[in-house]
């Protein structure tokens, strides 16, 4: 229920881009929130930008469209605005989200990312996804798609971890050259949940530079971290289930950072990930 409420508050606050995934197990709540706000007359479907994700157990080309159709059925929407390959590695198809062998090791699945991409292109042609992209792809994996013979559509975006402690300078430059938008996940430094976060890297929002710059503008470290990314052309997808923080994270369009401050924040890069995706 918290997801339903949070998405409704977010839409009322002015958010339009909603980042979801089948594996978050809350697409039914997201869809309901969007549909309720449409019914209220607050928004139209075309105002919303919903991103869904193809999970790693669904990479075989014949599974791609049925998987997206399942997401649409859960959302009760006709299309997603963006559909992305969530991870470049494929796992064994089946009901287990993380299929493991008797030693607890992930069972991978040999598939061809280019064939998966062709199935993504077909989803766009069928009108089920307005645009298609990728996530957690490095430069070589992007090159593989971009250099694919007969490529019909380029990935429009690559969703990767991106924030002041992990600024992604090289990947950002490569993506800029190829007109691929970087969507930065964990833009606030994650929830620091030890089950999936590398907590040996210090908490981003405690950073003294971010807090000092925030003080100058009467903003929080979170707002400075988000502003930093949007000001360099990186899309941010902060997560919050707290109404006050949902609103706080939207109040980033009424100030701007100087070039010197942007450089200072860039210099915070530690090149260390919070989300190591160790599997
Ligand atoms: P909560 O949902 O209780 O607000 P990220 O977007 O980098 O993944 O970070 C999400 C984490 O940051 C969540 O634990 C979220 O908790 C917390 N969070 C979201 N917005 C803020 C904010 N403005 N200030 C501090 N923490 C925040």
Automatic annotation (TrEMBL):
Q: Which GO terms describe its molecular function?
A: Delta4-3-oxosteroid 5beta-reductase activity
Q: Which Pfam family, any one, appears in the UniProt record?
A: Aldo_ket_red
Residues annotated as site: Lowers pKa of active site Tyr: 53
Q: Which residues form the NADP-dependent oxidoreductase domain?
A: 5-269
- Which domain of life, per UniProt? Eukaryota
A GO BP term here is: bile acid biosynthetic process
Give the residues the record marks as binding substrate.
Answer: 109
- Catalytic residues per the record? 24
Give the UniProt family note.
Belongs to the aldo/keto reductase family.
Task: Write the protein's name.
Answer: 3-oxo-5-beta-steroid 4-dehydrogenase
């Amino acid at each position: 229920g918290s997801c339903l409420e949070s998405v409704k508050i977010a839409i009322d606050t002015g958010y339009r881009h909603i980042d979801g995934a089948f594996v978050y197990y809350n697409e039914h709540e997201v869809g309901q929130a969007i549909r309720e706000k449409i019914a209220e007359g607050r928004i139209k479907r075309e105002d919303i930008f919903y991103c869904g994700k193809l999970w790693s157990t669904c990479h075989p080309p014949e599974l791609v469209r049925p998987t997206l159709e399942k997401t649409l059925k859960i959302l009760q929407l006709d299309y997603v605005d963006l559909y992305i390959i969530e991870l470049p590695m494929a796992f064994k198809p089946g009901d287990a989200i993380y299929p493991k062998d008797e030693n607890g090791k992930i069972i991978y699945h040999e598939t061809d990312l280019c064939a998966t991409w062709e199935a993504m292109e077909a989803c766009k042609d069928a009108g089920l996804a307005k645009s298609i992209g990728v996530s957690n792809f490095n430069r070589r994996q992007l090159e593989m798609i971009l250099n694919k013979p007969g490529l019909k559509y380029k990935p429009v975006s690559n969703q990767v971890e991106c924030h002041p402690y992990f600024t992604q300078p090289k990947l950002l430059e490569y993506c800029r050259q190829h007109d691929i938008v970087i969507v930065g996940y964990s833009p606030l430094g994650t929830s620091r949940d030890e089950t999936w976060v590398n907590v040996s890297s210090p908490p981003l929002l405690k950073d003294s530079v971010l807090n000092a710059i925030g003080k100058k503008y009467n903003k929080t470290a979170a707002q400075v971290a988000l502003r930093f990314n949007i000001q360099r052309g990186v899309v941010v997808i902060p997560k919050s289930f707290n109404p006050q923080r949902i609103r706080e994270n939207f109040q980033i369009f009424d100030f701007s950072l100087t070039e010197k401050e942007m450089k200072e924040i860039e210099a915070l890069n530690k090149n260390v990930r919070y989300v190591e995706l160790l599997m």
